[in-house]
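Reopening this one. Same input as before:
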Amino acid sequence: MQCIDLNFIKVNDIVKFINPDKTLFDGIVKKVFDNCIGIVIDTKQEKYKNLNKGKFVEFIVIHENEAIRCMSTVLGCKEDKFELSIIIDIPKFITGIERREFKRLPIIMDIEYSPLPDGKSYDSLKDIEAMYFRCLKKTYTIDISGGGICFMVSKDDLPLKFSLVTFTLKNDKITAICKETRTENTNDFKYNKIGFKYYYIEKQQRQLVLDFVSQKSK
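Same output, byte for byte:
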């Protein structure tokens, strides 16, 4: 079984541990070594299950536009009040979960977008000129998931390959670069329904989206 590349696992990344009954609980990466990872777990979580040295664990990490399911072995653990600190060996790849397998939440909420020129590279928000942050247009979403978002776009802005997108979940502002994946014609004379995947989004912000969808889907 192939080991995953540790280069994309960063301190403060959130991993989702998978229980035998398919429920999940969170851990936070605190240290990445050459051959192991240190993770801290809040034991007060409702779905938390005890982990012991030598136990095999399965968990999900988010990488770019997919979730990767991995397995590892607990090399050591220490419990202190309501926290469990564990060391796991290099995770082994089980399977990739494609974007379409992210749970999608139908929801109408306010969102702002700014069409971006095609033919440019958008590896981060630093690649976007300031004017596009000042020219955001208001619209609303159709659905949202950890892999992407669907919202109404003015037909005056089509075709639209890349877009700067910003929206708020609770008190957290999410800013992402999105890439068009599908266009659905509607009976509306002014707007089309466009599906996007997150082309660039910070891991912590993607986690906020995942948690929001999971909470609202219960």
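So the earlier flakiness isn't reproducible anymore. For the record, The helical segments are 130-134, 203-216.
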